[in-house]
């Protein structure tokens, strides 16, 4: 049976593309940014789209097997003011939680910056996990780095997988070796695009798109940024480069999501 999913904070569809590559089907999306929503409409013209997570609930959203999303990270990032879940943007986690409590999918997949783990001295992460447990979900989490999934950038993100009423989430994010409890570590599978390699904090954004090339320093092109995130060339085409850089910088790395999706399908 093909698993269906709903996508919150969809951006340009990193979760959506990754899960579809894993064999799932997108039932609906939600994205408030109009330019990013236009990218979604281009690639998923038949999929139902909502504008605001605050308008989604059991009264208007189709039940799905999985709900995913990377809720806003600005208040959690170590580069920001770190208001945490009390911040206006990262506080949208509570809308995410409400939607889960109303729709009750079997699976939940959440992505965010590693700063989530230390926000408010760890209390925000505890609030998130306990909130999932309160509505019946058991969770596992792991920091995964995009460089080990076939793209040429270092991009560490926290991924939380939760399953309703059982411990299957741990089987998704962690692997056993020789039938023991030891967790295996992914071996690097990095694909380098020419001389390109994103380093540092792994962020892609308009202010950090210079790289070393054979003839000196040059800009990373939007197409190269698409490759760094695992999207097909031209995925964000037809708009200003500034919008493309911003959207790709906010996106989730597609191959990481594909790996998680395939693991969910395997243990389902």
Which SSEs are present, and which pair or pack?
Blueprint: E1 4-8, H1 14-21, E2 25-30, H2 34-43, E3 48-50, E4 66-69, H3 93-103, E5 107-112, H4 115-118, H5 123-134, E6 137-145, E7 156-164, H6 168-173, E8 210-213, E9 216-219, H7 222-228, H8 241-250, H9 254-267
Parallel strand pairs: 1-2, 1-4, 2-3, 4-5
Antiparallel strand pairs: 5-7, 6-7, 8-9
Describe the fold and architecture.
This protein is globular. It has helices at residues 14-21, 34-43, 93-103, 115-118, 123-134, 168-173, 222-228, 241-250, 254-267, and strands at 4-8, 25-30, 48-50, 66-69, 107-112, 137-145, 156-164, 210-213, 216-219. Strands 3-2-1-4-5-7-6 form a seven-stranded mixed beta sheet, with helices on both faces. Strands 8-9 form a two-stranded antiparallel sheet. It is built from nine helices and nine strands. With 268 residues, the protein is α/β, with parallel strands linked by helices. A hairpin with a 2-residue loop joins strand 8 and strand 9 (216-219). Helix 1 crosses helix 9 (254-267). Mean pLDDT is 84; it is low at 178-195 and 197-207. The termini are close together. The relative contact order is 0.16.
């Amino acid at each position: 049976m093909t698993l269906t999913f709903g996508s919150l904070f969809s951006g340009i569809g990193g979760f959506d593309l990754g899960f579809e590559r894993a064999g799932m089907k997108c039932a609906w999306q939600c994205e408030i940014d109009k330019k990013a929503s236009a990218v979604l409409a281009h690639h998923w013209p038949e999929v139902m789209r909502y504008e605001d997570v605050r308008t989604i609930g059991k009264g208007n959203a189709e039940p799905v097997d999985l709900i995913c999303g990377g809720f806003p990270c600005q208040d959690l990032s170590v580069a920001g003011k770190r208001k945490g879940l009390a911040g206006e943007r990262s506080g949208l986690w509570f809308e995410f939680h409400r939607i889960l409590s109303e729709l009750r999918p079997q699976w939940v997949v959440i992505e965010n910056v590693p700063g989530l783990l230390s926000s408010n001295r760890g209390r925000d992460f505890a609030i998130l996990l306990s909130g999932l447990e309160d509505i019946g979900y058991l969770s596992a989490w792991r920091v995964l780095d995009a460089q080990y999934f076939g793209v040429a950038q270092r991009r560490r993100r926290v991924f939380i997988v939760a399953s309703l009423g059982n411990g299957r989430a741990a089987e998704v994010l962690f692997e056993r070796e020789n039938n023991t409890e030891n967790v295996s570590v992914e071996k690097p599978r990095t694909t380098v695009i020419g001389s390109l390699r994103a380093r540092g904090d792994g962020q892609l954004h308009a202010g950090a798109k210079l790289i070393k090339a054979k003839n000196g320093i040059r800009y990373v092109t939007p197409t190269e940024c698409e490759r760094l995130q695992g999207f097909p060339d031209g995925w964000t085409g037809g708009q200003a480069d500034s919008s493309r850089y911003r959207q790709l910088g906010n996106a989730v790395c597609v191959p990481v999501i594909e790996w998680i999706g395939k693991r969910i399908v395997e243990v389902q």
